Amino acid sequence: xxxxxxxxxxxxxxxxxxxxxxxxxxxxxxxxxxxxxxxxxxxxxxxxxxxxxxxxxxxxxxxxxxxxxxxxxxxxxxxxxxxxxxxxxxxxxxxxxxxxxxxxxxxxxxxxxxxxxxxxxxxxxxxxxxxxxxxxxxxxxxxxxxxxxxxxxxxxxxxxxxxxxxxxxxxxxxxxxxxxxxxxxxxxxxxxxxxxxxxxxxxxxxxxxxxxxxxxxxxxxxxxxxxxxxxxxxx
Length: 235
Fold this sequence. Notes:
globular, nine-stranded mixed sheet
């Protein structure tokens, strides 16, 4: 098990998360990073910052890094990532899906063409894909997933794009959303944590620790504990 100490006082990292609600996805990523940092004698503080502002704050050093972003975030947002370094072990793997309450056939990204689509503001993975398959007039963003789902149930959009973890949890916990189903899984992606470059010396030990957590199965034990807690809460 990795154990490193970088000063006589415990280092505190303030890491930005981009979801205000404690979804399963966010709770899981938080718990994994917190444990990896704990094993390296680093204290973890999670701070909510809206998605676009979050990258700017992490890049400038106002916060110490990002909880989870797509691997190629530097290509998608070069102006706000030049000072960020990636921890080279995924923090979480998620499925991106299209959700709808309408009788429409969805199979892949191209099948979204011609439909009105909503997704969470600042989600770079969706922005890039949608730019090539949908008209800009059909694409809209919201500040939170529940707002997007309410727009769907009101008939003002046709499809909501979201990760399966977060959307399924919300649908199961909200009777008004019971008619919303997964139209199709569009993509499976791995998300990574990023640190401001002033902490670049921490990348290697944290990467090693995350790999150890996969090997010793603690990663999966944390996942199961949180999944059980969320299922019990949503009943």
